[in-house]
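User: Before I run my own analysis I want an independent prediction to cross-check against. Here's the chain; please return only the structure tokens and, at the end, one sentence I can use as a sanity check.
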Amino acid sequence: MAAQDVLGQTARLASSSALLQVLFRVITFGLNAFTLRYLSRELIGVVNVRLTLLYSTVVFLAREAFRRACLSGSAKRNWAKTINLLWLTVPLGVFWSLILGLVWLHLLEVPDPSVVPHYQAGVVAFGLSAIIELLGEPFWVLAQVHLFVRLKVIAESLSVVSKCILTVTLVILYPHWGLYIFSLAQLLYVSVLVMCYVIYFVVFLGSPEATKKSFPVARVKALLPSFVEDETFVNLKEARLTWSFFKQSFLKQILTEGERYVMTFLNVLNFGDQGVYDIVNNLGSLVARFIFSPIEESFYVFFAKVLERGKTVKDQKQDDVAMAANVLELLLKLVLLIGFTITVFGYAYSQLALDIYGGSMLSSGTGPDLLRCYSLYVLFLAVNGVTECFTFALMCKEEVDRYNFVMLALSFIFLCISYFLTHWYGSVGFILANCFNMGIRIAHSTHYIYHYFRESTHRPLTGLLPSPALLLVYIISAVVTAFSEVLFCCDKGWMARLIHISTGALCLAATLVVMFCTETKLIHFVRSQFLSRYLKKGT
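Assistant: Structure tokens:
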């Protein structure tokens, strides 16, 4: 497949995934607002922090390394051995579910049954849901490598909608069920997700469309583990790369979910405060994560397909190098400007957003400071996602192994900083520690990118330099909206709030106008790659 075709399909995958994430976050946003009025903060804290951490840890440790190794390289490979390797995620998931389930049941503090009933059933259900989801891993990787955009959108949309409908129904009818509600909803979510992929491939394989596309798997039976005499069960190169990524994934999970591990294992916050933190965290990431995560996930596939892992820039096809460098530069500029926008306007509108969303329970106390700090953290998330996306797609096995030692040291430092900052600044300390963590990771990735392109004429890191005019507009907008918040928000009535909102809207409009005038290359990239199919439909 030509690099230009890969770019086009990758951009469509990212934009579709972004729209999907909008759906996820809007539904989660509304669901949290709804459940706040029916359930206790303690119950929400246990579900969204304690049990979700169990599920995400099992899934991440069991499949992340396999995904990174199997998504690398060409779609033309010995898929029987790749599928065999991917099925190893299931026994690995069973192992982690049993080990971590025992820890969650017997070593961690058990919530008060009168406030959070059926905790043991919740642990079993969330551990089981992780194993069920891993059953669909071979199907997911096949779909991702071959850029089956609609399949992913439909599968994840149906699973999320099903989960939310069941949750809302049970909360209204049986609020006393406690964790039974979220356990059943979680099991339904993963079951629908896996069944969508299975049903699709059962129908697709052997069809004229599959034959036309020369799909490498001909029968459904080929998606199951298989043994071939006189051949290894798995591709040894992929297996070694998986082991390298596995050592890294354990550390990355600590860095990604570090604050939740500190909350869970060190008891620095009670379950109620954990619930508030999680609600604010979801609100803070509402805009950021539905854009950055799809971009990182999709363009990892792009870079891994266009450039060959482990080769220097001189040994690659120079046309592909030029395209990859240009795309990386524009992606960095795109996420940087999104991050700047959220940071600048998030600071002045955090208290108002929390007051509208959850009332005084969220807008008083540390809630606004939490969201303001999270707005800054979004900027770090934005840059780190793209820089690590490129770095992990190009690192050879030896470089991945060396980076594991960096991650080990960083994990230890991060946990220590999280613990002390939380004692000094409360839940705000978690976000400050995350900013430090992301800053170090960005420094490592940008150093790798600079070194990689040093012997070429391409300088993609210039994407981290916005135009002076746009930077000036951001500064002016930050000052104006901060003064507006002091004068009009948030206890002076709805008319004052509308004035504050109008001030922000005018500043945002001015920022966008300057952005369109100064970042013409970026605007063309977004229109041609991300919005092309939507613009065509409208014309």
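Sanity check: The two ends are 29 Å apart (CA to CA).
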